[in-house]
Amino acid sequence: MSSNIPILTSKEIEKILLRIGFIFYRQTGSHRIFVMDEYQVVVPHHNRDLKKGTIMQIIKGTGLSLDEFKAYL
Q1: Phi-psi category of 29—alpha, beta or left, where left has phi over 0 and alpha has psi -120 to 50?
Q2: Separation between Cα atoms, residue 63 and residue 17, nearest integer Å
Q3: Which residues sit opposite 9 in a β-bridge?
Q4: Which of 32, 49, 60, 67 has the highest CB neighbour count under 10 A?
């Protein structure tokens, strides 16, 4: 399963979240917070690829499955 997780940067994740319907809510330090309805996602804003575990936590926070999330790539 973990081999199916795409390697993404924080900018790529943010673009996907905006496509899904999330809006940028606020930033605390290097972490940007996006919200949509009852969902809240924290995205670390770094200039490198995010770790697979971090990406999975972000996907989990969207309420989508991995396959549903990948459809927005």
Answers
A1: left
A2: 12
A3: 49
A4: 32
Question: What pTM value is reported for the model?
Answer: 0.90
d(CA 45, CA 3) in angstroms, rounded, equals 23
- Which uninterrupted H or E stretch holds 28? strand 23-28
Domain 2-70, second-level architecture: 2-Layer Sandwich (3.30)
- Distance (Å, rounded) from C-alpha 54 to C-alpha 11? 14
Average pLDDT (17-45) is: 97
CB 62 within 8 A of CB 17: yes
Q: Smallest Cα–Cα separation from 24: which of 32, 10, 16?
A: 32
Helix (H) or strand (E) holding 56: helix 52-62
